[in-house]
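Quiz preparation item.
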């Protein structure tokens, strides 16, 4: 079975905004051949990886955009690298410098998509000041990933009012052609998300952090219920797997992939049947593990 990790932060570690790694030479022990070997061992044909900007409120990033481009440059056939951005600056104005950086990164260094994380940056995704980023994504024909869900930890860091799914309804009305991934099945507003997906064919979602994550708690029964609901809403072919791995350890990464994909292949359908839902067909499994995200990426 073909496997693709559709959501990760592989090699993008947390760092303060004034101390970002900008190339793979700064990653201890980075070895492109070892990365390829690890992907082969895990059975992955492709891994997506992306930085996350959190400089507006928290003064930090996961990785950086130049680092993301350098990772892709080293292993272009196996890595799908995205950019990250906060579209508003510290003074609540459009972050024009980042907008230019994203355009250059996609056109000149081959980054393939954009990550936005409104609850971390304390802004609303339907704020008209943010719209130039969506217009740019449309122009560049790249998908936009959103963290639009709950976040464990200090509530002041990621207030839930910035994560509510219904904010995205304005986006799918104003940008019906924009390709969107709402991470983590929009937890805990999954049904709200599925309702949006049922009428918006360019909205996808991933199941990152639900199975057996390397940090925090897995929620495998919630995943089974959510996938059953996705089937009932007729949108199961837009749900895909992502590891959400953050860090630089290839061994830790490989173990995570094997643990989670093993669960999806061997246990998930049984869990779904316990809720009264039909088990995943082989085609639905293949969609979840690879085909659906490849469609989102137009690959
Ligand atoms: Zn993530």
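Solution:
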């Amino acid at each position: 079975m073909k496997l693709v990790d559709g959501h990760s932060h592989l090699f993008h570690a947390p760092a303060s905004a004034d101390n970002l790694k900008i190339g793979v030479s700064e990653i201890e022990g980075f070895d492109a051949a070892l990365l390829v070997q690890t992907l082969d061992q895990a059975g992955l044909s492709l891994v997506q990886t992306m930085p996350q900007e959190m400089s507006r409120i928290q003064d930090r990033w996961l990785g950086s955009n130049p680092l993301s481009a350098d990772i892709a440059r080293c292993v272009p056939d196996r890595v799908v690298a995205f950019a990250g951005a906060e579209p508003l600056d510290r003074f609540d104005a459009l972050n024009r410098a980042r907008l230019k950086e994203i355009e250059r990164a996609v056109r000149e260094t081959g980054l393939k998509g954009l990550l936005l994380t409104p609850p971390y940056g304390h802004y609303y995704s339907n704020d008209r000041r943010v719209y130039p980023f969506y217009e740019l994504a449309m122009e560049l024909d790249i998908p936009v990933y959103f963290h639009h869900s709950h976040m464990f930890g200090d509530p002041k860091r990621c207030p839930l009012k910035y994560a509510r799914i219904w904010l995205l309804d304005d986006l799918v009305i104003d940008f019906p052609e924009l390709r969107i991934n709402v991470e983590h099945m929009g937890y805990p507003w999954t049904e709200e998300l599925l309702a949006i997906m049922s009428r918006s064919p360019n909205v996808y979602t991933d199941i990152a952090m639900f199975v057996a994550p390397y940090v925090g708690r897995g929620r495998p029964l919630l995943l089974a219920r959510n996938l059953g609901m996705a089937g009932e809403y007729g949108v199961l072919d837009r749900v895909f797997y992502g590891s959400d791995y953050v860090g630089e350890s290839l061994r830790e990464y490989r173990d995570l992939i094997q643990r989670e994909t093993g669960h999806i292949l061997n246990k998930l359908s049984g869990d779904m049947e316990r809720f009264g839902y039909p088990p995943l067909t082989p085609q639905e499994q293949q969609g979840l593990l690879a085909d659906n995200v490849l469609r989102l990426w137009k690959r």
